[in-house]
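As noted in the main text, all predictions were made from sequence alone. Below is one such record, for Cu/Pi carrier.
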Amino acid sequence: MLPTATTLSAFKGASQPFVAASVAEKGAPIEINSARYFLTCAAGGSLACGLTHYAMTPVDQIKCRMQVNKSLYSGVFDGFKKVGSAQGIKGLYLGGVPTLLGYSMQGMGKYGFYEYFKYLYAGIAGEETAAKYKTMLYLSASASAEVIADVLLCPMEALKVKMQTSATPFSNGFLDGLRKVHAAEGLNGFYKGLAPLWLRQIPYTMVKFASFEKTVEAIYKHVLSKPKDQYSKSQQLGVTFAAGYFAGIFCAVVSHPADTLVSKLNNVAKAEGESTGTLAMRILKDLGFAGVWAGLTPRIFMIGTLTALQWFIYDSFKVQTGLPTTGGAAAPKKE
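Prediction:
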């Protein structure tokens, strides 16, 4: 059973995504929880993830190379200096095209389906249960959305890692890279990292969305002195950015070991007859405990900045389309 407007109106203020109000803000041209609303959120997510990941390509490249060979650079700035000196700006943005395409598709699935699954699961749970276990709804909706989002991301992630971590240039460009991956391994070459990607991205996204929603709620409840709707849109977007950075720090730590495994999987060749699972266990054994945490510092900087900017771009896009910013309104008063 899908949620009705009457059921979802109980969430107005407690958590914006559960609002039924064509109800949400007067004059909003897009009805909350309509098909157009979910498509708008998907478009905002595509912009947010694609643009920010592309902008952070230099940091991502150094991080991936340090995960594959931790002695390659002494730190992220040493990596910038060495790559920039040898190859210039073009070298720093190696793998930028698959990054832009892959994370645009991932963001579309991540944000669009997150909003949809929150709506769907709220209706399945029922009014009282959904209100009582809001955090569980955030977690389950974000996990469900990320499963789909990673299927969209995985081929481009595989190509990006190969381009960035190969000892010699992997390809002459994006299309040449696609041909080489397919020629060497077929479709499996694009999806052999899907399970580790899920292991990295699903916990990451669950933390990203749940911690963001709870942080926004806490800021309006405990830090600021007025209800959300009494602040300007620019002030609300400031809250969005702060909560996003806070959430990003937790995301980086939670997902880093799996991120290291993804980088190594797309860089290490399989032995004859070796399964992806066996290869993963071999890599983890070789890395050891310290090895799986290599590159964590640049990743905290990268993911903290990425997460803050993604939420900021996403909410800015929503504001421009007449929608409210995500989360944080005060709970409705009892009549």
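Residues 5-320 form a domain with the Mitochondrial carrier fold fold (CATH 1.50.40.10). The chain has one domain: 5-320. These features were considered when defining construct boundaries for the mutagenesis experiments described in Section 2.9.
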